[in-house]
Specification:
By secondary structure, the protein is mostly beta strands. Helix content is 6%, strand content 28%. The chain contains 2 helices and 9 strands.
Length: 191
Amino acid sequence: MLGKLLKRIRAGTRKLAINDASFIDVSDSIVVTSSCFPRNGYIPEIYTQMGKNLSPAIEWNNMPFLTKSIVVFIEDADAPLPVPFLHSVAYNIMTKDAANGGLQEGSIPSTPYVAGDPLQHRLDIGRNMFGKTTYIGPAPIAGHGLHRYFFQVFALDGSLSFPQPPKRKDIIKSMAGHVLAKGCLVGVYER
């Protein structure tokens, strides 16, 4: 019932990280794909809160030559909120091959991230919408309709440093002037 009442209320794409004014002139040249779901395709339940809550595998290519690190934002543009729902943000993702790379399934933990954990050395995790350093899988309100999940990838010319796990706005602010290219993959899910 609640989903039907809120059906017309959507955050929209205007406030997604990829559409921030700081990145408006940045090339959309990164090609983002997933072996878990097709572009604009349905995200399997295993990657949702109704399933195992695993972060899906994300691959990217066509990174600029000078890429030093990568940032990935996962946001729901159709959440009935004033801003998109931030499911996770991973930063300081390092890649040996700047042109190609990705995150394997489950790379963004669904349990609290511990900085310096040797098992999680390939990336750092910022605070999601609940203030946790985890991946939160899709779980839209039942009956609210189809939700679009934006897997946004940014190539940076350096790494980011924060004294504590950062919020979305802190990461975006630190990225300004350092983004070489960006790209996006959209998946959908509905309850």
